[in-house]
Amino acid sequence: MPDSAQICDRTSGVPLLGAPHLAGLRRHLRELLGGEDEEAVARALVVADTLASLACRHAHPPFTVRLRYAEGVSLRAEIRELRCGTLPGHAALRLPLHILDCLARTWCVDLQDHHGVLVAEVDLAG
Q1: CB-side exposure of 35: number of CA atoms within 13 Å?
Q2: Burial tier of 84 (Cβ tally within 10 Å: 0-12, 13-18, 19+)
Q3: How far from each other are the two terminal CA atoms of the chain, in whole angstroms?
Q4: Mapping DSSP to helix (H, G, I), strand (E, B) and coil, where does residue 58 land?
């Protein structure tokens, strides 16, 4: 793991107007994580795409996926202030949450009172 003095955090935001814009998010992530191990990039792509897909499926666009990248350490993706229409039932979220359980270091899905927050962090070091 890099020394904390060597860690360079980069933060970016990718606006999404709905599911057709997910490809742009994936392109941005591939560029951002270009120097990382292929397996780490794949994990990060699946986790960020899962969060963004949940937002596209259950919230009203537009929203922004905020990405915080610490080279060689982690990628954090978060979507805040989501405006949700009908809230999903447990069954609708089961598979995406299982994916987050398997691939993310930490995650949070909080969809209540027609507002929501989605956050996940992926370990890039191993």
Answers
A1: 6
A2: middle
A3: 9
A4: helix
DSSP structural state of residue 59: E
What is the rounded CA–CA span in Å between residue 96 and residue 82? 17
Please list the alpha-helical segments (H only) found in the chain: 22-32, 38-58, 90-103
Q: Note the CATH architecture for domain 9-123.
A: 2-Layer Sandwich (3.30)
Position 4: which residue type?
S
d(CA 88, CA 119): 17
- pLDDT tens-digit readout, 24-74: 999 999 999 999 999 999 999 999 999 898 888 878 889 899 999 999 999
CA–CA distance, 124 with 87 (Å, rounded to integer): 32
- Residues 6 or more apart whose Cβ sits within 8 Å of residue 106: 119, 120, 121
On whether the CB atoms of residues 47 and 109 are closer than 8 A, the answer is no
Residue 20 is given by DSSP the state G
pTM: 0.82
E strands, 39-73, where? 59-60, 63-70
3-class state of residue 61 by DSSP: coil
